[in-house]
Write a structure and sequence with these properties.
By secondary structure, the chain is of the alpha/beta class. The chain contains 9 helices and 5 strands, in the order H-H-E-H-E-H-E-H-H-H-H-H-E-E. It has a 5-stranded mixed beta sheet with strand order 2-1-3-4-5. Helix 5 (102-108) packs across helix 6 (116-129).
Length: 203
């Protein structure tokens, strides 16, 4: 069995570089985590949350899945949101999609992919809900727009969870944001969708 030794070597070099720069970094980090941001993103290997926003370990609580989907039947995602909101008391939930998303591309295809097709039904629903906005678009433009519309829909779903609704009812300082990342240039875009305790409609 291959042991991926090069990754352990990379880890030793990374940890040594951080200790050299800040000897107290790991002892302080190990005491507690107190991030203000929950990041719900795509599992795509090209979209690493901390690196995109240039924040060190401990600053972002992360949940990732195919196409950054949030649905009421996904107990994994809901448990992450619950822990982030109720225990960590995060102040921001960011749903971040990305252009060129393979999950969304697969949902647009007209052939089966296997088990993942059940998950991709959620993306097909987004396409159906927004058919008027997608009509007449070329394939590349349609993909980009569906990536954006999927973020908008997942923001609505986050806002509609009992976890976030109850947090707002209890006066929590909590905002939900929808962003999209461009892999081709490394730039984030705010889709200006979301809500806060002052405007909890998810629009």
């Amino acid at each position: 069995m291959k042991t991926l030794k090069h990754l352990f070597d990379n880890n030793l070099a990374w940890a040594a570089a951080i200790r050299e720069k800040d000897p107290d970094f790991f002892p302080q980090l190990s005491k507690q985590q107190a991030p203000e941001i929950l990041w719900i993103g795509c599992a795509d290997s090209r979209v690493p949350a901390n690196q995109i926003v240039n924040l060190p370990p401990g600053e972002v609580f992360v949940h990732r899945n195919i196409a950054n989907v949030v649905v009421h039947t996904d107990l994994n995602c809901l448990s992450v949101i619950h822990f982030a909101v109720e225990v960590l008391k995060v102040k921001h939930i960011v749903v971040c999609g990305h252009y060129g998303c393979g999950g969304i591309q697969a949902a647009m295809d007209d052939h089966q992919h296997g088990l993942i097709d059940n998950w991709l039904r959620h993306i097909k629903d987004v396409s159906r809900f927004n058919a008027d906005q997608l009509e007449g678009l070329g394939k590349a433009e349609l993909l980009d727009r569906l990536c954006e519309l999927n973020v908008v829909e997942q923001v609505r779903n986050v806002c509609g969870t009992s976890i976030v609704q109850n947090a707002w009812l209890n006066g929590a300082d909590l905002s939900v944001h929808g962003w999209i990342y461009n892999i081709q240039n490394g730039i984030l875009k705010d889709l200006e969708t979301g809500a806060s305790a002052l405007c909890s409609d998810g629009g």
